[in-house]
Automatic annotation (TrEMBL):
Species of origin: Succiniclasticum ruminis
Keyword Zinc: no
Keyword 4Fe-4S set for record: no
Descriptive protein name: Chloramphenicol O-acetyltransferase type A
SMART domains (UniProt xref): CAT
The organism's taxonomic lineage, starting at the top: Bacteria, Bacillati, Bacillota, Negativicutes, Acidaminococcales
InterPro entries, sorted: CAT-like_dom_sf (IPR023213), Cmp_AcTrfase (IPR001707)
Keywords: Transferase
A Pfam family the protein falls into: CAT
GO molecular function: chloramphenicol O-acetyltransferase activity
Gene3D superfamilies the UniProt entry points to: Chloramphenicol acetyltransferase-like domain
Amino acid sequence: MKTEILPQESSRAEAFSLWMSSPMPMVTLVKTLNVSHLLKMRKKSGIKFTSLMCWCIGRAASNIEEFYLLPENGKLFRFDKLVINVIVANRQGGINFCDIPFSDDLEQFNRDYLEFTQRAATECKSSFIEDCMIIGTSAIIQTELDCIVNQYTEKYSNPLVMWGKYRKGLFKTVMPVSFQFHHVQMDGGHAARFLEQLQAEITSCDKK
């Protein structure tokens, strides 16, 4: 569920006063991640790369308090649960969206991931979970990219993580990731912390 909170009583009071009425409140950071351990985990577990990546995103975000805050219609809300939104190619050649409830249990998260994405692909219908903090994701794996920056729309202010095709080097496999967030929700320091935590989750995923 979500609860409205008073901005002046939150850690984002100053940011709310500065950025709530900004015509462009979104900020994007880009980082190249080492995903070698994620590929090892995929091979060892048989879990899809995207499912593993989404789980690591949820793990990293769940430890940062600001991820549970989001401005909506001039107000500030706190959520108590996270969901990971993914884009699914459906059987008609189009796309649909589906929300995957985040679980710290990888096996449970993967079961939900497979169930929800398969349903979206087969039924060609999007599905959303209400009153949860949504972290959007998008994988652009058709080509190698150096940078990814998403457009801003006033309709959505949720954080978004995008990644391109990974590239294999001599000693490690790397992948560009961009993280777009609303400045009221968090600042660059929190975003940098998230990206560092995401790298840490990826690095340790094959040890879990």
